[in-house]
Every structure is written in structure tokens, then in C-alpha cells.
Amino acid sequence: MMSRKNAVISLVMNTVIVLSTIGIIISYFSGNDGQYHIPPSFRFFLFTTDSNIICMMTAAVMCFFEIRFLKTGKDIPLLAVALKFAGTTAVALTFGVVVLFLGPSTDFVTMVFGGTSVYMHFAGPIIAFVSFCFLENIHRISKKMFIPAVVPTFIYGIVYVIMVVFIGSENGGWIDFYGFNTGGFWYISFPAINLLSLGLAAVLRLIHNKNLASAGNLPEGDKDR
User: Fold this and answer.
1) Are 90 and 148 in contact (CB under 8 A)?
2) Side-chain half-sphere of 211: how many Cα atoms within 13 Å?
3) Could you tell me which of 60, 58, 78 has the C-alpha nearest to residue 141?
4) What is the C-alpha end-to-end distance of the chain, expressed in Å?
5) CA 57 – CA 197 distance, rounded (Å)
6) What is the pLDDT of residues 127-178, one digit of tens each?
7) Burial class (CB in 10 A: 0-12, 13-18, 19+), 105
8) Cβ(54)–Cβ(152) under 8 Å?
């Protein structure tokens, strides 16, 4: 069971995730077009926005159960932790792609710390990582949970390939704004991004489960399946 101290800290962090994401999304429709002058509707084509919304929704679920736990003592269910795993994996991928690929290939400081990017690309993923891996250690993340954790990346990748490669901007699709089809190598970048997502999920699971065991929250007979 989560300690009350961890529940309070996690609740604060998840509330920050929810309110910050909502505030930034609202700002897009209030004249904030960012460093790259992106129109509001186009924001939802970006995995940065989508991943942070996913994380926000999973953080909101965690908030609900943490408040219930603090009021009644009723434990937080596995579903809430599994959903937070998926949300954290999504923003971890955003962080990883920005730091490893987009930042070095463009203006790193602007890409990571410019305007709302400082939260969407950096602070949000860090808050989700810390809360999931070090505070919400109440259920083991099994290997089966990798599937829902990486599904958002896989679905987005399929949509991106269809809109960029098979439809194309000249026919009403998307421009290759992430550069994943540079040189026509989408068939390399697509599996690479999904492998990165899977790798990040594995790291998150490893850290989460390690802290679960060290905190003494691992149920007897719980197998890694």
C-alpha cells in the first residue's frame, strides 16, 4: 500500500500535470502560437501534444484514486498504475525524441526550453517519471502491460506514415514535420521509434518494480509475468 506521504506528494505532482497540460492547451486557442508559430488545430497532429494529453488523463485517474485513498484508506487499483505507466511511456518518448533527435538537429535550447516546450518536452515528462517510478510503487508492472504502454506510439506512427508518405501534403496529408521520412527512410524510422518506445517502457518498468520491491510493497508470490 502507498504511504500517505507518497500519496500526498504524488497527488500534488499529478495535479500539476493535469493543470499545466490543460492550461497549455487552452493557451493554444488564446493566441499562443509558440516559437514555431503553429496554429491551434495543427497542435493535435503533434505527438508532443497527444502524449501530454494521454499523460494528463492518466494523471487525472491517479488523482482520483489518490484522493480516495487519502480519505478512505482504500488502496489504489492496478488499473490506475497501469494507465499511468502508459502515460509516462508516452511522454518519455516525447522527451527522448526531442533530446536525441529533434533538439540536436534544430535549435536545442528553443526546442527543449522555448515557451511551452519547457513543460511539454521537459518538465512534464520528468514529473511523470518521478511520480511513477518513485512514488506510485504499489503494484508490479508485468510484461503484459508493455502492450497498452506502447500502443499510442504504434497507432500514431501508422497515422503519421499514412498522412506523410502515402497521402502526402500535396494531397491533403501532412508535411514531414518530424523529418522521419527524410531520404524516404520511413520504413527505418517507424520501427526505430517503436523500439525506442518499447525500450523506454522497459526502463520505466525496471525502475518502478525495483523501487516497489525495495519499499516492501511486492505481494508474496507475485510473479514477473
Assistant:
1) no
2) 17
3) 78
4) 21
5) 19
6) 999 999 999 999 999 999 999 999 999 999 999 999 999 999 999 999 999 9
7) exposed
8) yes
- Are the C-beta atoms of 62 and 80 separated by less than 8 Å? yes
Rg over CA atoms, the chain: 18
CB-based contact 156:47 (threshold 8 Å): yes
C-alpha distances in angstroms, 177 versus 46, 79, 100, 106?
Answer: 9, 34, 16, 12
Residue 88 near residue 146 (C-beta atoms within 8 A): no
C-alpha cell at 211: 523501487
This prediction has a pTM of: 0.92
Q: Cell triple for residue 55?
A: 499523460
